[in-house]
Every structure is written in structure tokens, then in C-alpha cells.
Amino acid sequence: MSDSKIIVALDFTEADQAKRLVDRLDPSLCKLKIGKELFTAAGPALIEHFTNKHYDVFLDLKFHDIPNTVSKACQAAANLGVWMLNVHASGGLPMMQAAREGVDKANISVAPLLIAVTVLTSMDEATLHSLGVSRDLPAQVLALATLTKQAGLHGVVCSAQEASMLKSALGKDFCLVTPGIRPHNSDKDDQTRIVTPAEALNLGAHYLVIGRPITQARDPVVALNTILNEI
Ligand SMILES: O=c1ccn([C@@H]2O[C@H](COP(=O)(O)O)[C@@H](O)[C@H]2O)c(=O)[nH]1
Fold this sequence. Notes:
This protein is of the alpha/beta class. Helices cover 43% and strands 16% of the residues. The protein has helices at residues 15-22, 36-42, 44-52, 67-79, 93-105, 125-130, 137-150, 163-170, 197-203, 212-215, 220-230; strands at 6-9, 31-35, 57-63, 84-88, 113-117, 155-157, 175-178, 207-210. Strands 1-2-3-4-5-6-7-8 form an 8-stranded parallel β-barrel, surrounded by 7 helices. It starts with 5 loop residues before the first strand and ends with a helix. The ligand O=c1ccn([C@@H]2O[C@H](COP(=O)(O)O)[C@@H](O)[C@H]2O)c(=O)[nH]1 is lined by residues 9, 11, 35, 117, 120-121, 157, 179-180, 189, 191, 209-213. Residues 9, 11, 35, 117, 120-121, 157, 179-180, 189, 191, 209-213 line the site of the ligand O=c1ccn([C@@H]2O[C@H](COP(=O)(O)O)[C@@H](O)[C@H]2O)c(=O)[nH]1. This is Orotidine 5'-phosphate decarboxylase. It is an enzyme of class 4 (lyase).
């Protein structure tokens, strides 16, 4: 397992695109994230391909379903040998407890980290309110993260904007995984709650999830190394 704090989000349509990029990377410099797009296209074989190359893989499928289904899905995901997997905290306490039980039943030597998404980093306060949530956005993140800790999960996905609040409330060992990372002068794309890589770590993020600023850069390896030199 590498101690890199950067998780490169491999949001590609085909396995070969991801493999071409990863062939130029090094597992000591970054971890990898496989999300819905790539997993749907390439499946478990791609996870095995990268774990055989000694990469830590975060399987970002954000399970959100009835407890029994999420439990079985988490067990199956853990059996793939991933380093981290996740569910949506808004699935509720019984669903998250079932997720943890599913991971505990997996037939593996090292259990993955199990975390829960609080409020997507693409969302702002107005979008949250449009869903009928009356709390302000940081309060909603804190409530969902508190529920996640109560369910016995290892941490949450949140914006680094909420990292220092969560660190104070839930302790330094509660894992904070932060997408919405944007180096200075890079495009926001569809992200709303963005933070630069160095600032995210200063605020208490444990891991930085970075996709397009690396994968869509003219030279992704240069982009990754530039970020690594800045943090
Ligand atoms: O709240 C969330 C949860 C997950 N993501 C995922 O992270 C990456 C971010 O990619 P960028 O290209 O750096 O925006 C992407 O795979 C999302 O599915 C997130 O952005 N926010």
C-alpha cells in the first residue's frame, strides 16, 4: 500500500484509455479511483489488472439501496480486493450498518476502508434546498458524517471546505476523502465546492480525489507531478 494522498479518478469510457494513462504512473505516487463509468464498461477485470500492478484502488460506486442489497454489494466489492469502497450516507443508518456487515463477511485478508458520501461536491446550497433539505449545507454534511461515524464506517467523502469542521467534530482519525480539488487557474467543470490541493491538505483532508485536472491535462504525468510538488 502506498502512502500517497492523491487518488486519480479514472473517468474514462474504455479500459484501454485508463490502462494507457496508468502505464505512465507509479503506485508510489498515487492511488486510483474507478467509478460508475469505467466500472460499468470494464468490470472487475480492470480492478484486478491494477491491483496486480500494486495500485490501491478506490471503487467509487456510491451504493444507495435497501440494506440487504447494499450489504451484498459491499461484500462483493470487498471481495474484489479494493482498498476503499463507498455508499451514500443519505441511505441512512441501517443501510450503512448493513454495508459494514457486508464488508465484514468478505473473504479477504485485509478489509477495505468503507466510507460514505455526505453531500456531493457538485452541489451547492440551492440544489440541496431544492431537494427539501432545510439545514444549511455544512450542517447537512456534519449530520451525515456524524451518522456515518455512528454506523462504524471509516470516514466520509466531503468537500475540503468542510474538512476542518469535520476534523474538529469527529476527530483526526475519521477519514476525509475530498473530491472537488482544483489547482489554481483550472476549470471548475461541474464542481461547486472546490479547493486547491495544498489548501485541502491544510484544512485536514486525508486524501484528494483528482480527475480532470490530471486526466484531461495536455500531459497528465506533468500535471500529477506539479500537484505533488505543490503539496
Ligand atoms: O462528492 C463527490 C463524490 C465523488 N466525486 C467523484 O470524484 C471525481 C472528481 O473528478 P473531477 O474530474 O476532479 O471533478 C469524479 O469521479 C466524481 O465522480 C465527486 O466529484 N464528488
